[in-house]
Design a protein that fits this description.
Layout: E1 2-7, E2 27-28, E3 31-32, H1 33-43, E4 48-53, H2 57-67, E5 71-76, H3 85-93, E6 100-104, E7 107-109, H4 111-118, E8 125-130, E9 141-145, E10 148-153, E11 163-171, H5 176-190, H6 197-205, E12 210-214, E13 220-222, H7 226-235
Parallel strand pairs: 1-4, 1-6, 4-5, 8-12
Antiparallel strand pairs: 2-3, 6-11, 7-13, 8-11, 9-10, 9-11
Helix pairs in contact: 3-5, 5-6
């Protein structure tokens, strides 16, 4: 199993915090966000990582290779300023042909959340969903029926949604070919300024089941704004 971590974003909404570093290198406690993620994943036996870089990518590459004795493949998104995460997603999975853990690098999460995903069956696509959080317009929302995800989009009205996809997934190797194909189709149709979750929706639309595991009220946060960084720094003591 290989982990694909998307770390190309500029983090512009964090202002001065990300002028000189990618946001996944912001510190929460004594460790960076990505350092925490890699330590959690590697504790479950994942030793091979594809890191999609963009903003301040050289600094991230240097940091990871100097601090971890793991198998890293770095793929640079040269157009990270003009693209959304679908292109980074495509670059990350393009040359992978094995089961994948997919992670957005700005997600700071309780290790128990990843444990629930890791223990889910590898026969189907599984997304991690917070099914307790109040929802707004900005969240990547999902509609769930029983254990299956029927819709995933930011455009879902909050009142119709059952939770938020937190940016962590398990993808069996047998679905990677379809996801690559759908990502290519979507970028041809709509450009690269869209989200990779659109490719997951096409997986669903073509009759494939996508399931979810709940965060079970364990803490997590996607660090996009300064107040979310503050929140991460407040909750991290619950992780140790």
């Amino acid at each position: 199993m290989k982990a694909v971590i998307l770390a190309a974003g500029m983090g512009s909404r964090l202002g001065h915090y990300t002028e000189q570093i990618p946001k996944c290198m912001l510190k929460v406690g004594k460790k960076t966000i990505i350092e925490h993620a890699i330590e959690v994943l590697s504790s479950f036996g994942i030793k091979s990582f594809v890191i999609v870089t963009g903003h301040k990518g050289r600094k991230l590459r240097k940091f990871l290779t100097e601090n971890f004795n793991l198998d890293f493949t770095f793929v640079h998104n040269h157009v990270y300023r003009e693209t959304n995460n679908i292109y980074s997603f495509y670059l990350g999975i393009k040359d992978v042909w094995e089961d994948v853990i997919l992670l957005n690098s700005d997600v700071y999460f309780h290790p128990g959340i990843f444990e629930r995903l890791y223990l889910a069956p590898i026969s189907r696509v599984f997304l991690v969903v917070d099914d307790q959080k109040p929802l707004g317009e900005e969240e990547m929302k999902v509609v769930i029926e029983n254990s299956k995800i029927l819709r995933i989009s930011k455009r879902i009205p909050p009142k119709e949604a059952n939770g938020e996809y937190i940016g962590m997934a398990k993808i069996p190797e047998k679905y990677l070919g379809l996801l690559k194909e759908f990502a290519e189709q979507i970028m041809e149709e709509s450009g690269a300024g869209v989200f990779y979750e659109d490719a997951i929706q096409r997986i669903i639309n073509t009759g494939n089941e996508v399931h979810y595991v709940s965060t079970q009220k364990m803490p997590w946060v996607e660090v996009d704004f300064p107040h979310e960084l503050t929140f991460a720094r407040r909750i991290y003591k619950n992780f140790v």
